[in-house]
Amino acid sequence: MSEVEAETIDLVVEPDARLRSAGVATATPRQVLAIVSVGICLANLDLFIVNVGLPNIAQEFRGASLEDLSWILNAYAIAYAALLVFFGRLAERHSRNLSFLLGVALFTAASAACALASSVEFLVVSRVAQAAGAALMTPTSIGLLLASFPPEQRAGAVRTWTAIGGLAAALGPLAGGVLVTFDWRWIFIVNVPIGVVALIVGWLKLPEVPGHDVPRPSSWAALLVTSGIGALTFAIVKANDWGWSSRGVVLGFAVATVSLAAFARHCLRSRNPFVDPALFAVRPFTGASLVMAPYSAAFGAMLLSCALWEQTVWGWSALKTGLAIAPGPLMVPITSLLFAGRLIARFGAAAVVSAGIVLFAAGLAIWATLLGADPNAPAVVAGVMLIGIGVGLTFPTLMGVGAGALPPSSFATGSGVINMIRQAALAIGVAIFVAILATPVSMSERIAAFQRGWWIMIAITLAGFVPNYLFIRRKAER
Fold first, then answer.
1. Which of 65, 296, 309, 395 is deepest in the core (most CB within 10 A)?
2. 201 to 31, 35, 125, 132, 290: CA distances (angstroms)
3. What phi and psi values does residue 92 have, to the nearest 5 degrees?
4. Is 442 strand, coil or helix?
C-alpha cells in the first residue's frame, strides 16, 4: 500500500463509535492483525500457487482440455468477483469476527475438498466454495482491523496487512513449485492446517464486533452478475472449439448480454442497488475502474501464460517455473511500499499509473520478442520483474485514487466494486488467452500463439491510457 493510500484511509475510513466501543477484545491490536492476516495470505497465496500447479493437474486429468482446466482459475475469479460485494455488505449486518471465522472455515473446508478432487468438475465446484470463503474473509478482516486499532494507527495496520498479502503472493510461485514436486494436491492441503489454527486462535482471541442495521444486498443481483460474467467467459473460451457462430457460443453471449443488462437495470432503478450508480459520478473512481478492467485482464492472462509457457514449451519443472516467476510478485510489495507513495507525491497519480502501464507492457514485450523454443531464463526474469514493478505502481495507486475520491460512507463499497471489476477482468483475460492459444498442433504454432497472445495483451493494457488521461489526469489538473 502506498503512502497516499495510507493517508486516504486515515481521512476516509472512520468506523462509527459503535465499532470502536464494541466488545471487549481478548487480543491486542497486533494479535488481531496477525490473525486476520491469515485471510489475505490464503487468498493471495492461492492466486499464484494454482497457476504454477495447473500443468501438473492436467497430467492427472488427461482427458481435460485447456478450456476445461481454465475453469479451475476462472470459476474462482468469477465467484470471488460476484460475492465480494455481496458478502461484504451482508457481513455488515452481522458480527464481523464470526463472519471472518465463517469465511476461514469455508475456505479451509473447500481447500480440503480441492485436494480430494477426483475430476476437474469437482475441483471447479470446490474452487467456487474457496472463492466464497475468500470473499467473506477479505472485507471482514478489514472491519476487524479498523475496530481494533486507534485512529492514528489504522493506516499503518492496513499497510502492514497489505504488505503481508503481497509477501504471500510473492511466495506463491515458489511455494507452488515446491509443493507440486510432491503432488499438486499439496497446493490445497497446505491451506488446511493454516486455516484450522486461525480458526482456533480467532475463536479464542478475536474481539466481538457487532454488525449494523443496514439493507440486505440483493441475491438476485448477485446471481445476475455471476451468470453474466460466467456466460461471457464461457462463450470466449469455447469460441475456437465450437466456432464463433455456433449455437452454444451465440447463446453464451446472449445470456451474458441479457444478464448484465438486467444487472445494470437493477443498479439504476433499485432503491437498494447492488452497485450504487452514484459511485460512477465520481470521475476518479470511474477512471480507476476503467483502467483496472483492461489491466487486470492482461494480468490474468500473464499469470496463466507464464506458467504454461515454461512447463509446456520448455518442459521446465514446477519448481524451476516457480523460481523464475517469483521475482515478479516479490517486486509488487517492494515497489508499492517503498516507491509508489513518493512517486505519487512528486508526479501525481496519473503519471504513476502511466508508468505502471508502460512497464507492464514492456515486460510482456520482452516475452513476445525474446522467448522462443530454446529456454531463456534471463528474458523470463527480466520480463516478470518489469511486470511486477508495473503492478506495484498501478494496482495500489488505482485503489487509492478510486477509493480516496469517495465520501466516507462509500469507501468500503467502492473498494469492493473495484475489486469486483478486477476479479471479473482476470477471468475474462484468462478466457481470451485460452481462446488465442486454441489447440496448436506443432511447437512452432504453439510458440506463435503465445507470442500473438502477449501482443494482444499489450494492446489491451495500453488501452488503459485513455481513461487514465480522461478521468484521472484531468481531474488532477483542476
1. 296
2. 10, 7, 29, 22, 40
3. -65, -20
4. coil
Which of these, 194, 150, 184, 171, lies nearest to 25 by C-alpha position? Answer: 150
State the Cα–Cα distance between residues 325 and 319, nearest whole angstrom: 10
Measure the CA–CA gap between 43 and 9, rounded to whole angstroms.
22
The C-alpha cell that represents 228 in the structure block: 453474466
Q: What is the C-alpha to C-alpha distance for residues 434 and 154, in angstroms, rounded to an integer?
A: 41
| Residue 53, all three cell numbers | 500447479
Task: Please tell me whether residue 16 adopts helix, strand or coil conformation.
Answer: coil
pLDDT of 18 higher than 90 = no
Q: Where residue 12 falls among pLDDT bands split at 50, 70, 90?
A: very low
What's the predicted TM-score (pTM) here? Answer: 0.85
Q: Which of 162, 466, 59 is nearest to 291 (CA)?
A: 466
The span from the CA of 338 to the CA of 160, in Å, is 13
Distances (CA, A) of 177 to 168, 192, 428, 450: 14, 18, 25, 22
What counts of helices (H) and strands (E) characterise the chain? 21, 0
How far is residue 364 CA from its own chain's centroid?
A: 19
Which has more pLDDT, 370 or 150?
370
Predicted pLDDT of residue 132: 93
Amino acid 199 reads L
pLDDT at 211: 67
In terms of Cα–Cα distance, which of 117, 132, 34 is closest to 79?
132
Q: How many residues does the chain have?
A: 478
Average pLDDT (110-116) is: 96
In this structure, are residues 388 and 331 in contact, taking their beta carbons and an 8 Å threshold?
yes
| pLDDT at position 14 | 41
CA angle centred on 286, ends 283 and 289, rounded to 5°: 150
The Cα 48–Cα 67 span in angstroms is 19
Residue 103 has, within 13 A of its CA and on its CB side, a CA count of: 33
For residues 446 and 372, is the Cβ–Cβ distance under 8 A?
Answer: no
Q: What mean pLDDT is predicted for residues 333-350?
A: 88
Report all structural domains of the chain as residue ranges with CATH numbers, in order of start.
26-209 (1.20.1250.20), 218-273 (no CATH), 278-477 (1.20.1250.20)
Which has the higher per-residue pLDDT, 166 or 194? 194
